[in-house]
Amino acid sequence: MIINSKILRFFRVKYADTYHIIMLLSCIMVVVLILPKEKRFKYEYEKGKVWMHSDLVSPFNFAIEKTPKEITADKKDAIDAVLPVYKFADRITAIEQEAFKIDFDTKWKAKFQGNNSRSKNFKAGIDLIDEFYKKGIIELNNHYQKKKNADYYLTIVQNNVATNVNSSALYTPSRALDYAKAKLNKANDDIEQGFLLDIIQDHVQPNVIFDENLTQKLERESEESVSLYKGMVQKGELIVAKNDVVTDDVYKKIESLRKEYEQTGLFSGKREIVALGQVIVVGISLSLLIIFLYLFRKDIYNDYRQLSLILIIVTGMLVALSWAIKIELPSIYYIPYCIVPIIIRLLFDARLALNIHILVVLIAGFFVPNGFEFTFFQITAGMTAIYSIQNLLRRSQYLVSAFLILLTYLVCFAGVSFIHEGNFSKVEWIHVAPFVLSVLLSLLAYPMIYLFEKLFGVTSDITLMELSNTNNPLLRELAFKAPGTFQHSMQVANLAEAAIYKIGGNALLVRTGALYHDIGKMRAPNYFIENQKKTGNPHDELTYEESARIIIRHVTDGVEIAQKNRIPDAVIDFIRTHHGNTRVDYFYQSFLKNFPDRIFDEQVFRYPGPIPFSKETGVLMLADSVEAASRTLKDPDARSIDILVEKIINYKLEQQQLINTDITLKDIETIKQIFKQMLMSIYHVRVEYQSAGIKLPEKEALES
C-alpha cells in the first residue's frame, strides 16, 4: 500500500499536467455517458406568448397529443360510461321461495290453528314473493349513486343475455316491503296483513347481485381504449407563423412535434453527433473550471484530493440531473441544485462556489425544459445560498440560509408567473412544492460535508466553527497551562479577524488559526514572558543558544500537538508560518553583544519557516507581532500606538515575510488602521528593548 502510494505520488509530480488532463477527460466522459442522447428541440416557446422564430411548418405527419389533464378527463369519462354489471342469482330465488313456504306453515299452525283462510293467505304471500324475485331485488351501490337512494342505469346479465335497465325498474328491499304493504291493505278481511308482512320481510333478499370483477374488467378495457391523441397535423401544414400568439391549440401541436422530434428522431441526425455536441459543451465548461483553478486557486489545482472532490461534486450533480430526466421526474426542480454551492462554499470559498454553480447550471440548462427559466431560478437561488453563509458564525445560519433560498425561489416563481400569466388569479402556486422539497434536500449538504472532509482531507467552516469554540479541549488545556498565552491568542484572534474581514478573506479560518498558533508553548509555558511570574526568569540560567532553541521549538511543538489532536492542516499552517523564517532577535543581538568574536551558526537563532503564503496567514503574523509589541506601551495614546503599528508592520515588510501572500499595499494600510483603532484599549506594560532600530517588547524578543 505504501509502495503504491509512493508510485502514485511520483507520477503525480513527474506527470502533473498529464494527470490533470486525465482527470478532466475522465470527468467529461462520465458526464457525457450519463446524459440523455436525444436530440434537443431548437425552439423556445411558451403558451400565451408570441412565437419569435420563423414560420413553423410540419416536416411530416404527426398526431396531436392530448395533455395529461385531457387524458385523465377522457379516461374518467370512459370509466363513467361503463354501466355496473349485475347478475340474477337464481339460487337465492329458489332458496327464499322454499324458505317462505316452510316458515309460513310453521308460524300459521302456531298462531291460526283451525283457521280456514290458510290457502288464501299463503297464495297472497307466495304471489308477492314470486313477483319480487321474478322482477328482481337489488341492493343499490353507493359508488354509482349521484345522491343517496338515487337510481342509476345498470346492465343485467341473465342466461348470457345482457339488458340495460334503470335500477328504478327493480325492487329494492325497502321498495318491495312498501309494495307488499300497499297491496295487502287492499286485500279482503280474510288476509292476515301483519302476519304476512312479518314473514315476507324475512325473505326479501337481493337476487340481482353486483359483479364487481366483470365491471372492473370492463372499466379497465374502456380506460385502455382511450386514445392519447386528438387529430392529426399533415406534412407541410403551418403550425404557427412568426409573431403569432402561441394559443392553447398551437401549444399542443408544438409540444407534440417536439416529442416526436426528441423521442422518435424523425429529423435527420445521429446519436453520435449529439454525443459529440455534448462532449464539446461539457468539455468547454469543465475546462474553464480547470483554467479558473490554475489562474486563481493554484493551491486547489495542485492538490489532487481537493481537485478530485470538486470534479466528483460536479459530476454527481449532473448524474442526478440525468437520472431525473430519464425517470421523467414530475418536476426537474425537485433536484437540490443549491447543494453544490453550499458544499463548495463551506469547503472552499464563495468565489469558487459561484463559478462552479454557474457552470453546472449552464450545462444542465441544455438538457432541461425551459432552459432559460431553469438557469434563472438556479443561479439566483445559488447566489443567495452563497451569500447567506458568507460568514458562518452560528449553526442557526443553516436554517436561515434555507429560508432565504426558499424565499428566493418563491419570489422568482412569482415574478416569472406574473410575466407569463399577466393575472394574479391564474398563478398556480401548487408548482412551488418542488422548490420546497429541493430546499429541504439541500440541508443534506451539511452531513455530506463531514463525509467529504474525512475522505478528502479538506476543512469546512463547520469544522472551523467547532474548533474556534473556546470550550474545545485543546484550548481549555492551553488556558489552564499557559493562561497568558491564551489571553494573547484571544487578542490576536480579535485583531486578525477584524483585519481579514475588512480586506477580504476567511475570517473564521484566521480566527481559528490565531487561537491555536501558540499551542506549542504549553510544553514550556514559563519560558515565555506572558506566562512568567514577577519572580525569576528561567532564561537567566541558560545560554543564548539554548534559550533561542526553546523559543523556536514552540513552533514545532505546536505542529506536533496539533497533529496529535487531529487539528486540520489548514489550521496547522498558521502554527508553522506565524514567525516565518525570522530570527529570535533578542537572543541573537544579545549573543553578538556578549560574544562579538565567536563563530556561530546563525540558523540556531532563526525560525524554520515557511513564511506566510496567504492573506490569512500573513495577517496573523502581523497581528501576533503588533499585539505583543503593544504591551510595551506604558502610557498608550493615539500617537504612540500609531508609531508602534507603523514600525512593526514596516519591519515585517522589510524582512520580506509577506512576499508570498496576495496582500496589497492598500490592504496593508487598511490593516494598520484597524490595528491602531483596536489597540487603543490595550494598556499592558512590557519590558522594552532596542533591536534593529525598532523598539520591540521582551515577548517579541523571546518569540521572534
UniProtKB/TrEMBL annotation:
The answer on whether this UniProt entry bears the keyword Cell inner membrane reads: no
User: Could you identify this protein by its name?
Assistant: Putative domain HDIG-containing protein
Native organism is Solitalea canadensis (strain ATCC 29591 / DSM 3403 / JCM 21819 / LMG 8368 / NBRC 15130 / NCIMB 12057 / USAM 9D) (Flexibacter canadensis)
User: Which stretches make up the HD/PDEase domain?
Assistant: 481-638
InterPro entries, alphabetized: HD/PDEase_dom, HD_domain, HDIG_dom, Metal-dep_PHydrolase_7TM_extra, Metal-dep_PHydrolase_7TM_intra, PgpH_phosphodiesterase
The record's annotation in Pfam families points to:
7TM-7TMR_HD, 7TMR-HDED, HD
Residues that span the membrane, as ranges: 18-35, 273-295, 307-325, 332-348, 354-377, 398-420, 432-452
Instruction: Enumerate the UniProt keywords alphabetically.
Output: Membrane, Transmembrane, Transmembrane helix
What Gene3D superfamilies is this protein classified in? Hypothetical protein af1432
